[in-house]
Amino acid sequence: MNVCIIGGGASGCLCGILLAKNGHRVTIYEKNDKIGKKLYITGKGRCNLTNATTGAEFLSNVVTGSKFIMSAETRFNSNDTIELFKSFGVPLKIERGNRVFPVSDKSSDIIAALYSQLKKYKVNVQFNSNVTDILQENGKAIGVVVNGTNQYYEAVVVATGGKSYAATGSTGDGYTWAKQLGHKIIEPVPSLVAINVTDKDTFVLQGLSLKNVSVSAYCGDKKIYTSSVGEMLFTATGVSGPLILSLSAYINRLNPKDITLAIDFKPGLTREQLSNRIAREIANLGAKQVSSLLEELLPKSLCGIFANRLGVLETYKANQLNKETRERLITMLKGFTLNVESLEDFDRAVITSGGVCTKEVSPKDMQSKLIKNLYFIGEVLDIDALTGGFNLQLAFSSAVACASNLR
Fold it and tell me: Which residue range(s) make up the domain with 297?
């Protein structure tokens, strides 16, 4: 079968390799002058290739589309991805959180391996190719319009990605074509993105990294999400880091101004245990200043902000804090509040949440249920997951499902 793939990213390249290996004639149209431009910046240039978890544990990290992608992930999971790239000649390693990286810490090694396989199986990769439309006739995809010329194929695979990092070529083209062909598009929104807050007293904390904390998000009195224990970072206008990026995936469709974040600085301690610890610290410090007490509990740069929010001077004596103030201190340590102003936009988002409605796509082979011989793989679909290599695995799993079943 003569097949074209629109997009030379992670899903498009792997799909092309496997289709060609299965005997199909494959052309990839890539609008950039090289493949894998977004892969190059993945994992801060190290390429977090996948996450070494499978089954229910893997799917628990899929925010949207877990039921849809379940069969594809079962057929081709992270272990399969690891073995595949090892067979491509890329040594891999597993780091904290089961994150998988090339031993070299270079995303270019992953891209080079994919390109080598594309050449090995004689995939025709056309660079600087601007696809502007998908051709269809009698309910079947029959080709594409590329650089102003009609090109005809027996099957068309859309692997254009989402809208995040538009400079890499992800400009949402796939959504436009899918909509023109009658598909429902779930509104794309930025995901895995930093959060801006209105609390200006925290802006001076820019660069402060916190470890072993957890963060919850509330919409009014309703708790939306609580993170695991991990790391976060204060920025010039808010917060970022792994915990915050993951949290953003659960609030990106809500009015940000209705959202409050609460940082638990002591997730391993109950209120009672924390109260006992504070009592011990005060007993040890005696007449020393409140600043000394806060420095036993927090990074130094946070102490002034805590004192201001508590309404006490840092020069107060630690043993002069009354019971009410101690309770408020415990409340702040277990839930330091930040009021959300906004989420960063697509240009700073790791991925896009939203896309082609999965109810209109077959989970077996990623073929459109509306247009025959039209397939959607990767981020263009309404599937997304948390940080840690899960989203690339979704791209690979969907690509394999398409390549294995396209006839």
Answer: 271-334
